[in-house]
Amino acid sequence: MDMRRIVAVLAEDAEQQIQDQVWKLEPSDRALALETEVGLRDAVGPPNVQEDLPEIKRLEHLRETLAVMAISLARTHGRLAWFLSGALNALEPVLRWRAMPADRGGSFGTVLPSPEQYKEAEDAVRRLQDALAVITAETATPTPGPSGGRARRTDVDR
After folding, report:
1. Which residues fall within 8 angstroms of residue 136, CB to CB, at 6 or more apart?
2. Do 140 and 153 contact (CB within 8 A), yes or no?
3. Would you tell me how many other CB atoms lie within 10 Å of the CB of residue 63?
4. Contact 88, 69 (CB under 8 A)
5. Taking a C-beta distance cutoff of 8 angstroms, is the pair 14, 25 a contact?
6. How far apart are CA 56 and CA 108, in angstroms?
7. Which of 25, 26, 76, 142 has its CA 20 to 30 A from that of 35?
8. What's the pTM?
9. What are phi and psi of 140, to 5 degrees?
10. Rounded distance, CA 103 to CA 117, Å?
11. Which helix (H) or strand (E) is 151 found in, with range?
12. In whole angstroms, what is the distance from residue 126 CA to residue 132 CA?
């Protein structure tokens, strides 16, 4: 299974748990998920930007996403930790990549990824960004408005 598919399944599971209220997000979960999303968006940009970068920069950006998720994972527990752990596991192949040829000597088991593998990993990170956006979104529930009608109320109003 490729990274994109693993992340898609992970994100769908997280979104379903939130919708079913199995995963009840605490404000601290939302804040950390938002911080993680911002970090991922800072590291991996849109496809047209990423694909124009040299491979060494693309790899650097992908490694930054791993660092962002690892730091966030270290700061949380429960379902958000499990989600971030699954995301890190999905992107594990990036840890074995190198951007430079192995001149004289060994490469410690690293490999040169193909352009498609870079694209796959960057697409997976973008899907994680989207999943974190869902995690950080406020859930809206209808409540009576001032005129007796129904008004939208968010968790922030509580």
Report:
1. 30, 33, 34, 37
2. yes
3. 15
4. yes
5. no
6. 18
7. 142
8. 0.84
9. -100, 135
10. 22
11. strand 150-154
12. 10
pLDDT (tens digit per residue) in 133-158: 999 886 534 334 444 443 333 333 33
What is the rounded distance in angstroms from the CA atom of residue 133 to the CA atom of residue 129? 6
* Helical axes 55-74 vs 115-136, angle rounded to 10°: 30
3-state secondary structure of 144: strand
- Residue carrying the six token digits 């499990």: 82
User: What does the pLDDT look like over 101-134, one tens digit per residue?
Assistant: 888 778 898 999 999 999 999 999 999 999 999 9
Among 154, 55, 126, smallest CA distance to 97 is for 55
| CA 44 – CA 63 distance, rounded (Å) | 10
For residues 45 and 125, what is the distance between their CA atoms, to the nearest angstrom? 9
Q: Which residues does residue 126 pair with via DSSP β-bridges, in sequence order?
A: none
Phi and psi (nearest 5°) for 149?
-80, -175
Nearest to 64 by CA among 39, 32, 91, 85: 39
